[in-house]
Amino acid sequence: EIWSYKGRGKDKSYLYEIVANKRNGIDVDKWDYFARDSLHLGIPNPFDWKRYLRFARVLHEPDGSQICTRDKEITNLYDMFHARYTLHRRAYQHRVNKILEAMMVEALKEANDYLLFPGKDGKMKKMSESIDDMEAYSKLNDHIMWTILCTTDDKLKKSRDLVNRILTRDLYFCVGQTQLKKKIGSHETPMKLVSQLIDIENDCTEKEIFERLSGEAKKTIKQGDIIVHIANFSYGMAEKDPVEHVKFYTKYDPNNTVEISKIIQDSMALPREFSERFLRVCVKQKDPEVREWVRGAFEEWCSHKGLKAKPGDVSAGNVMD
């Protein structure tokens, strides 16, 4: 295998696992935001990083030096990856958070052509052009929202209305959600059902739901009034078990590595699935009748796809709901 990293050789490959671990996702960057965000969100963090460090040691393998840990730390590692899953589900990709994000993005897009920022050599740049001009990019901060809110320029009315809706918690309405998963028989054990995630594209789904609306509803609703968001929750490696990419050592043989399959038997206490996907449908309009039309179209779409629609009627409220 060709060593592609620059700076250190293969014998020092463990150094690349400290800050951003591409091998299995165990790194101090995660520990930092786990501790910070769990504290401020009031979500317990079960991972004991001090214990992990106490048992961590570098062992040399043919594919490079790796940071390994004791075999008894398996549960602690699963706690770490479950903490990641919990933060994404209860905060980062919470439906209210994603609604706020969609509204803010729309407000910025509407303002893009009318808000200009001085860049290099004094040239005025749009927000979308500032990514290539660090002078202009450095001026993109929270004051943009207050500039939009305080302006009386009619060109920024759409943006201003959206920011006002955000500040008054008049948010887009989530009419429903569904889990994009179905049970199938595996090739290895045909009698055992396993979960298979369903791949669906946002744009196609918005169109399909819109097409299921009645002719009367289409006079009031545009396809752009329907927002589809797909939330992916995992242990960090999609459907794979990240702990399978960790090397362990035992008490009686601390200088040689062993894989997880050699340590534990089939345990009912450890997770068996490591990823799930949810599709949420929101509507921009405030009219309750419009919301019911979209809800009905979404439920019909779910029935056609063999999915179960669940209510998602939370347009505002605690981010922990």
UniProtKB/TrEMBL annotation:
GO cellular-component term (any): nucleus
GO molecular function annotation: dGTPase activity
InterPro entries: dGTPase-like
A GO BP annotation: dGTP catabolic process
Domain of life, per lineage: Eukaryota
Keywords noted in UniProt: Hydrolase
UniProt xrefs under Gene3D superfamilies: 3.30.70.2760, Hypothetical protein af1432
Protein name: Putative deoxynucleoside triphosphate triphosphohydrolase SAMHD1
